[in-house]
Write a structure and sequence with these properties.
The protein has helices at about 170-180, 225-230, 255-265, 270, 290-300, 315-325, 365-370, 375-390, 390-400, and strands at about 5-10, 45-50, 65, 85-90, 95, 105, 115, 150-155, 160-165, 195-200, 205-210, 240-245, 275-280, 305, 350-355, 355-360, 405-410, 410-415. With about 425 residues, it is an alpha/beta fold.
Length: about 425
Amino acid sequence: MFVDIAQITVKAGNGGNGCVSFHREKYVAAGGPDGGDGGDGGSVILCADSSLSTLMDFRYRKKFCAQNGADGRGGKMSGKRGEDLIIRVPKGTLVKDTATGAIIADLSKEGDTFVAAKGGSGGWGNARFATPTRQAPNFAKSGRMGKTREITLELKLIADVGLIGFPNVGKSTILSVVSHARPKIADYHFTTLVPNLGVVRIGDGSMVVADIPGIIEGAHKGAGLGHEFLRHIERTRLLVHVVDVSGSEGRNPIEDFDIINSELSRYSAVLAEKNQVIAANKTDVSTELLAEFTEEMEKRGFKVFAISAAAGKGLNELMNYCYNTLKTIPVPEFDVVEIDEDDAKDESFTVEFTDGVYVVSGDVIYNLVNSTNFDDNESLSYFQRTLRRLGVIDELEKAGIAEGDTVRLFDVEFEYNK
């Protein structure tokens, strides 16, 4: 089954906790702290793979989690780093942030990678906190949480040329004649339900041609399978607009041409501006409307090729023209929003007054609370200094906190004293 869009959740591994340990060895006095650091959590990485052609693998599996880092150990031994989770996706996959809709990665080339969720950094062991005045720290840092992100994978097939037009105008027949592709061909509408790709050889060169399933009026609103079909045109550099000039289905070819272009412009201004060449097909059936159609299209500045896909007439000239035209058209690019995955820089937090309690939240606060031994004076002192350094005390005072008010940091509550 061809699947070209999927929503998944990716969860990076948490960093391992730092270890609280003291050196113990026979005949060695006052060995000192030797707790090792926790290992970093594994990241979730997307990788473009040209051997894949669909997002079918994501139809049922929706959550992907990388491995957590291992905790540190005594003897200054660091925990093992969590293994990265590599998720392979088809070449041509766009990655969007589901919440914002912003494109955060374009995996258009073989081997392109994107870190969709970065693993949390490992916490420091107590050996890191030893100073001349704090020779036996009884606390360590917990590992940071791995990032969690909901993303949308959207496959836009990579083709140089896209064949567009109404259903049953001969697009699949054209592709089958000019390439080794074997799309389903029959004399009824929507024979083609998924895009088909074929490689067309031109001398020593080649180009990829996509047979886009038939577009109908209202496609920009999703009529037929509008959005699913139109999506795959966005990566193409040149459109071959296939029109049935025989009038065999009782439609006017000029009106057909205008309807399709109206759908393209309503879906996306980018599609409306793509270069087009016209393939006036089914000239083996009738040429009665060909002259009028060609005259009108040439007035509008379009190049028209009279062809018969069934008889193989005019296709070589059409393909040669497309191949030479492609040399002048740049490869389309998508605007990608860069995201900062460096969790070490994230020291943001919020202060809210809820039900008579000042609630302080944020990943940095969560990690600080989990790293603190509240029964140890040195650990508690470090906790208080860190809150002040982060600006938590200043923000509480700006929020109007008074002596004796309650402050909650996740599952820990304090009475505020200056």
